[in-house]
Amino acid sequence: MKQAGVLKSLPLNSKSLKGDFVMSKLRKSSFIALAFLLVLATVGCSKTDNAPAEESAIDMNDPAWKEAKTTPFAPYPETVTYSVGQTAGNYTSLKGTPYESDNAINNVWTRYLKNKLNVQNEISFEANDGTDYQQKVSMAIVSGEIPDIMVVPDRETLVQLYENDLIEDLTSAYENTASDRIKEIYDSYDGRVLDTAKFDDKLMALPTTEISHGPGVLWLRKDWMDKLELSEPKTIEDIEHILTQFVEKDPGGNGAGKTIGLVVDNEQPVGISGGQYEINNIFALYGAFPKQWIDDGSGKAVYGSIQPEMKPALTKVAAMYKKGLIDRQFAVRTSDDRKALLTSGKSGSFLDNWWGSWTVADSLKLNPDAEWVPYVAPQSEDGSVTMFTGKPTSSYLVVRKGFSHPEAAIKIASLQFDFQRYQEKDEATLKEFEDYSTYSVGGSPLAVNIDYYDAFYRNVGIMEDALATGDDSKLTSNSDKAAYKAYKKYLDDSKNGNAVDSNAWAGYTSNIATAKLVQNSNTKEVNPIFFGSTKSMSLKWPTLMKMELEMYLKIITGEQTPDDFDKFVDSWKKTGGDLITEEVNEAIASK
C-alpha cells in the first residue's frame, strides 16, 4: 500500500494489495509461465549481446558523461531515450485545464525527467493497472521485444527473466546512482526487499516496497461509549463488554434488537495483512496466524491455518457470534452492506487498520455527531499486540539486457522517490504536481512505489509540531506540506465550531491520530517466510482456499463445532496441502 501523503490517496488499495494467493494471481502466474515457454521457442535462451550502437559513442573520459552515469541526479549531456512499458494515465480528466494536451510522453512527469536528467520515454506499451498490464508484459515477453525499462508483476516473472538472461545486472548502477535516501529507504526493511531481487549476489531489479500496514485497529463509536459511560478497551474481555452494551442498550437509537455487533468480512475474515473488517488481532491473541507460511522454529515453513493455535481462536470467535457480538448476518453481507452498517449507525464497531477512518468518513455526512475513535486492541496480558507482516514487495523494475543506460532506471527512481518528493523547492513545479494529484492523472513512467517501511508514522511528530506552531518548514516531503494545509483547516474548523470536511477528518485521523497511536503501541511482529507460489498451487490452491473459507464460516456461525477444525486439517493435508508444504520448503531451501 502507498503512503497517504495527500488526503484521498490512502484507502483505495487497502485490500487489493494484500491477497498473496488469490485465484487471479494463480491465473496470472500460469499465463506468464506460458509466455516464457513461447518466447524460448521463438528467440531461444542464449545470452543476448544487443547493446545499441550509441554506446560506442559515449566517451567515459568526458566528465559530463562520467558524472551522469555514476551519480544520482546529474543530467546526461545528450538526451537518453528509453522505451518503457507503463500504466495508462487518466489524461481525459485534464480537459479544460492548462494541461489538456498532455499525454504519455509529454506530461508533468516526463517534462520533469527531461529537465532534470535529460531522459525521454518512448512508449513500448501502455495498459491499465492490473490484469491488462500483466497481459501486456506477457505479450512483450512472447514477442521477444522487451522494453528497455518495465515493471514485472511478481518474483516468478523476475526469476524467469534472470534465468533466461534477458535483464541487466543493476548492482553497480544501484551502488553508483541510487541516492542516499533511496538506499536508506531500502535499508528500513532490513534486507527483506532488496534480497528478493538478488541472484548470485547480483541485484537484478529494483523492487517496489510495501509499507507496514501496522497492527489491526479496532474502531468504535466513542459517542456511544460516552453515552454508556464505557472505558476504552484493552483486553478481549473489554471489547466483549463494550459490544454487549452496544447491542443490548442501543445507544444509537436503532430500536430494540436492531443494533449490529462487530462488522466482519465474509470473503476474507482473516489472513490478509492490512485486511479490512478482518479479525486477525483476535486470532493473534492465541498465537494463530492464518494463511501465513510461518517459521516453525527450525527454519521450515508451516501453514498457519492448520496449526493447533487456530482451534481456541475459532472457539472464541464462535462464542462471540453466538452471543450476537458479531454481526449475525456477516456471512451474507456484501462490501457495500458492511460499509452501510457503519455509516448509517446500525453498527458501532469494526476491525480495520490505521486508515480505517476513510471507511466511515461518510458517517459525518449522515450524522455530524458521530465520533469514531481507534484503539490498538485486543491486547495480550503484557499490553502488546502481535501482527504478521505483509509481503514486503510485489513488483519489480527491470532493465532489458543490452540497454546502454541501465543506470537510467535507478536515476529516474531516485529523482521521483527522493528528489521530487523531498528536495524539490520550485513552487511552480510543485504546483504542477499538486494539480496532477488533484486530477488523479498519474503519468509516471515507473509503475512502482518506494517508501520507508514505517512511512505512515515516520513524520507524525514533525507534523504535530508544525500544526501546533504554524511552521511547516521542517516537514520533509512535499506531500506532507500539502497535507499540512488540509489538516490545519480541519483543526481550525473543528476548534471554531464550523462544519468539518469529512475527507479532511479522515486524513487527519488516519495519518496523525491513528498513526501516532500505532507508533506508540507495543507491537510485536511475526514475519512470514514465504509469499510465492509453487507448481502445485495453480491446480490445488483454489480448492484448498475454498475449503478453508467454508471452515471459517461454518465454525463461526455454529453450523459446525470447533472440533470440526481437526477434520478440516486432515482433509487439507490430503487434498494437496502436504504436497504444497513440501514444495514451499523446497523453494525456501533452494534460495
Architecture overview:
The protein has 591 residues and is mostly helical. It has three domains: 59-126 and 145-212 and 394-439, D-Maltodextrin-Binding Protein, domain 2 (3-Layer(aba) Sandwich), CATH 3.40.190; 217-388 and 527-590, Periplasmic binding protein-like II (D-Maltodextrin-Binding Protein, domain 2, 3-Layer(aba) Sandwich), CATH 3.40.190.10; 460-522, no CATH class. 42% of the residues lie in helices and 10% in strands. A three-stranded antiparallel beta sheet has the order 3-13-6. It has a three-stranded antiparallel beta sheet with strand order 10-7-11. It has a two-stranded parallel ribbon with strand order 1-2. Strand 4 and strand 5 (202-203) form a beta hairpin. Helix 16 packs across helix 18 (502-519). The protein is globular and about 80 Å long. Residues 1-31 and 37-56 have low confidence and may be disordered. Keywords: Signal. This is Carbohydrate ABC transporter substrate-binding protein, CUT1 family.
CATH structural architecture of the largest domain: 3-Layer(aba) Sandwich
* Order of strands in the sheet with most strands: 3-13-6
Mean pLDDT: 90
Number of domains: 3
Blueprint (SSEs and pairs):
Blueprint: H1 23-43, H2 63-70, E1 80-87, H3 108-117, E2 119-127, H4 131-143, E3 149-152, H5 155-163, H6 171-177, H7 180-187, E4 198-199, E5 202-203, E6 206-207, E7 217-221, H8 222-227, H9 236-249, H10 280-284, E8 293-295, E9 301-303, H11 310-322, H12 335-343, E10 349-352, H13 363-366, E11 372-375, E12 384-388, E13 396-399, H14 407-423, H15 427-439, H16 460-469, H17 478-495, H18 502-519, E14 522-526, H19 537-557, H20 565-590
Parallel strand pairs: 1-2, 12-14
Antiparallel strand pairs: 3-13, 4-5, 6-13, 7-10, 7-11, 8-9
